[in-house]
Amino acid sequence: MARLTxxxxxxxxxxxxxxxxxxxxxxxxxxxxxxxxxxxxxxxxMYQEVGKMNSRNSLTPEEIxxxxxxxxxxxxxxxxxxxHTKVGTKLKMPENVLxxxxxxxxxxxxxKYQAVAQFTMQLIDNRGKVSDEQLQAVKDAGxxxxxxxxxxxxxxxxxxCNYANNVAQNDINPELQPFAPN
Length: 182
What we know:
Elements: H1 14-27, H2 32-37, H3 41-55, H4 61-74, H5 78-90, H6 95-103, H7 111-125, H8 132-140, H9 145-168
Helix pairs in contact: 3-9, 4-5, 4-6, 4-7, 4-9, 7-8
């Protein structure tokens, strides 16, 4: 049971109602993360607007999910691991890649994804203060300065979601349960 209020369309603050209604219409349900973020209409707006920007950054959709799943797993957010595993599955990401990201183990057959995952964890662990060697490793994998900043943006977005879920101790919605970590 969540420690913060998980809002519905009926209980959401007036300034969040339109956003939460749109989520319900688009998904057929309201993810508990959205219900919790609705307690702060500004937090919900930040999540949705930065999410839109993140979805059109310089990374591929799969690389965006590498960042999101890695950050969620690294931050211990099972809710976000489930949600982003569902997205990764829809993108037809290989099961071995998804499993490695979820378990924070090496992705042996995709050096680019491994570099993004490793850099994501280094960003989190070092609060952005990565070493010259860590930065060079992601560049050597083929990532530009733009890509690196887009990874940082993805970590920032993930931090909001992961921390909100961890504070709330949200239950994973039934619609996301098949994608929940074991």
